[in-house]
Amino acid sequence: MTRQLRPNHSVSFPMAIVALMACGAGCGSLRLAPSEQQRQNAWLHNRTAAVAAETARAEQSSQELQSLTQLSELQSRAFTSYCGLPREYPPAETTEQILGESNWQLAHTAVTQSAERPDPWQVADSVLEFGIGLGALLGGVCGTRIVRFLRDARAKSQALQEIIEGNEQFKKQQPAQAKAFKAAQQNQSPETRQLVAALKG
Residue 32's pLDDT is what? Predict the structure, then answer.
C-alpha cells in the first residue's frame, strides 16, 4: 500500500505569508503594478522613439544619430512589454501630437508615480487578505488553521500600526517629551528598531 506524502501547509504556507509581509514592510525595491499612466507613458515612449528614428532617417541625419534612435526604439519595446499596453492610447500619430502638452504632463506624472513606494501597511494587509481568502478556499482543518493564523496576524499588524501612529502623534504634540520617549525605547532589540523604522517609512 502506497502512502501519499502531503506538504505541511499549516507550517509552510503561513511562514511564506510572514516572509512576504516582512518584505512588504522592509523591501525598498518592492513596487506596485504599473498604473494606467505608467502604461500610457511606456507606450508613448516607444512611439516617440519610433518617430525620432523615422525622422532621423528621413532627414538623412548622421549614421551615428540614426543608429542611436533605432537602438532607442528597440530598447523602448522592453518598457512597453514590461508595463503592458494601456487601456487608452495617448495621441501620438504625428510629431505635433507626441510633443503636445498632455503628453508632457503624462511623462511628469509617470516619473512621479514611478518614484513612489507602496505603503507597507497596505502591502501587509493585502497579503494577509489574499492568504485568508486562499485559506478559506483550501478548507478543512488546514485551511481553518491558516485563516485563524492570518486573522490573528492581521489584528496584530493593525495594533502595531495604531501604536506606531500614536507614538508619532505623541512626539509631535509633546516635543518636550520626545527625548524622554526615545530614551524609554533604548531597550528595544535592533531587530525591533529596524522593523519599526521600516514600517514608519
Answer: 67
